[in-house]
Design a protein that fits this description.
With 505 residues, the chain is an alpha/beta fold. The chain has two domains: 70-208, Leucine Dehydrogenase, chain A, domain 1 (Rossmann fold, 3-Layer(aba) Sandwich); 220-410 and 448-499, 3-Layer(aba) Sandwich (Rossmann fold), CATH 3.40.50. 44% of the residues lie in helices and 14% in strands. The protein contains 17 helices and twelve strands. The strands form two sheets. Strands 9-8-7-6-10-11-12 form a seven-stranded mixed sheet, with helices on both faces. Strands 1-2-4-3-5 form a five-stranded mixed sheet. Helix 2 (40-52) runs parallel beside helix 4, helix 4 packs across helix 17 and helix 7 (226-239) crosses helix 16. The protein is globular. The protein starts with 26 loop residues before the first helix and ends in a 6-residue tail after the last helix.
């Protein structure tokens, strides 16, 4: 039996703080997973245990790395209307502080609970290590449906939650740096930053307490599309590998490659956009109420604008097929399937219907361990979440660096670079015996703007992480998910063991 077929088995028993297993109550999850399949937290732990058994890392280090360092649960009352109050529940988990600050998003969702934030915090630790972002992993959330509250109520909830984080030392540029996640965005990050600044007057680095902020408040250009762009860069890199081409029959030329995306939020939309711009054909998109499929291809921008205006795909096109059960979009014909919604969307109930040749996990944990194993055995290529959707945390890292340096990327060197290139260009024109056109000159002389540098840094980061994952997969004869986990475990273990782990011995 190949090491890639070694069954998942726990190395270290760990108490779970909630007695009942947590399962998302979405219709898609119920349709996809059997009742005895592991929860999201258990899935992450199973993946970790399988990789840990192949990592050659000391058992005591593996046990330390597996456990969540700290968790915070807070409740606070909020006045909603006419003197009525509602008690809001919030969480923050810090999985590993081997590097500080820890990093991870804050989500607003009725599905938030302690198991979810523990699982996501663990995944963030491994994700940061895979792409060499020097952060530990964390995650937070507030158990609300944000659509049921006014903007003023959401602001009060966000600011009160931030105050709790401040009081408990669960936020700060050198401690714990949140970011957007499901149900949150730049607006909420601005509220968090402002609240932190009010409680930390004189902290010159206060803007670095959170990332994903609006540009006017210290955000970085390119952050909004970072996760979707990272998904594109990662899949493009894997399509260039000979073994992937041989296994799937999909060419590295994206022309006429068919792509289906589940989830049309920030990540799904930008992933679709970048694939379309580079020649791929987006044939299917799934959202909450329904999905849309058109073998001839969909216009991403038109579809996005229509969905924003109408909150549905229904009525968009006479030629496109509307699928009433949105999870069925996962089972349609395509070359590349990108689940970009929630966890546990492909399980034992629907995995046999997956027709895609490549599954790129833009969401966190969209496959259960059993489904992953079945897809691998069926000859599919699964590109794992902790590698593929790390674009967001990579560009968050760039934003954090920008906030600490207090200068926009490119500001110090853009004109210097342009002058140097102009001099070189003058020599080229002299030797060529003809002047270049104005368009040619601008293309060559143009100095890098902040977005150019962010895109370049993200592309290089994703390429390096994909190549490391590929090398480990070949060396250990394992799938890409296991390889990515092994790389993460070994990098983190090197920090723990190199520091001696205070009071461990």
């Amino acid at each position: 039996m190949n090491s890639s077929q070694v069954p998942f088995r726990p190395l270290v028993k760990k108490s779970i703080l909630l007695s009942s297993s947590r399962f998302l109550t979405t219709a898609a999850t119920q349709a996809a997973c059997n009742s005895d399949e592991p929860s999201f937290l258990q899935s992450v732990e199973n993946y970790y245990d399988h990789a840990a058994s192949l990592s050659d890392v000391q058992p005591h280090t593996l046990a330390h790395l597996r456990a969540v360092d700290s968790v915070l649960r807070v409740t606070f009352p909020i006045e909603v209307e006419n003197g009525k109050y509602e008690v809001i529940e919030g969480y923050r988990a810090q999985h590993s502080r081997h590097r500080l600050p820890v990093k991870g998003g804050i989500r607003f969702s009725e599905e938030v609970d302690l198991q979810e934030v523990e699982a996501l915090a663990s995944l963030m630790t491994y994700k940061c290590a895979v792409v060499d972002v020097p952060f530990g992993g964390a995650k937070g959330g507030i158990k609300i449906d944000p659509t049921k509250y006014t903007v003023e109520q959401l602001e009060r909830i966000t600011r009160r939650y931030t105050m709790e984080l401040c009081q408990k030392k669960f936020i700060g540029p050198g401690l714990d740096v949140p970011a957007p996640d499901v149900g949150t965005g730049p607006r909420e990050m601005a509220w968090i930053m402002d609240t932190y600044a009010q409680f930390n007057v004189g902290d010159v680095n206060a803007a670095g307490c959170v990332t994903g902020k609006p540009l006017s408040m210290g955000g970085v250009r390119g952050r909004n599309e970072a996760t979707g762009l990272g998904v594109y860069y990662g899949i493009r890199e894997f399509l260039g590998y000979r073994e992937v081409q041989k296994k799937t029959g999909v060419s590295d030329k994206l022309e006429n490659t068919t792509v289906v995306i589940q989830g049309f939020g920030n990540v799904g939309y930008h992933a679709a956009k970048f694939f379309e711009e580079n020649g791929a054909k987006i044939v299917g998109v799934g959202e909450r109420d329904c999905a849309i499929y058109d073998r001839k291809g969909l216009n991403v921008e038109n579809l996005y604008e229509y969905h924003r205006a109408n909150k549905t795909f229904r009525g968009y096109s006479e030629s496109a097929q509307i699928i009433d059960q949105p999870s069925k979009i996962l089972e349609t014909e395509c070359d590349i399937l990108i689940p970009a919604a929630l966890e546990r969307q492909i399980g034992l109930r629907n995995v046999s219907n997956i027709k895609a040749k490549i599954i790129g996990e833009a969401a966190n944990g969209p496959l259960t361990p059993a489904a992953h194993e079945i897809l691998e055995k069926a000859g599919k290529v699964v590109i794992p979440d902790l590698l593929l959707n790390a674009g967001g945390v990579t560009v968050s890292y760039f934003e954090w660096l920008k906030n600490l340096s207090h200068v926009r990327f490119g500001r110090m060197n853009k004109k210097w670079d342009e002058r140097a290139r102009s001099k070189v260009l003058a020599l080229v024109e002299e030797n060529a015996g003809r002047p270049l056109t104005e368009a040619e000159r601008k293309a060559i002389v143009h100095g890098a703007e902040e977005a150019d540098l962010v895109y370049s840094g993200l592309e290089d980061t994703m390429i390096q992480a994909c190549q490391e994952t590929r090398q480990t997969a070949e060396l250990k004869n394992v799938d890409y998910r296991t390889a990515a986990y092994i790389n993460a475990i070994q990098k983190i273990a090197a920090v723990y063991e190199g520091s001696g782990m205070l009071f461990m011995h």
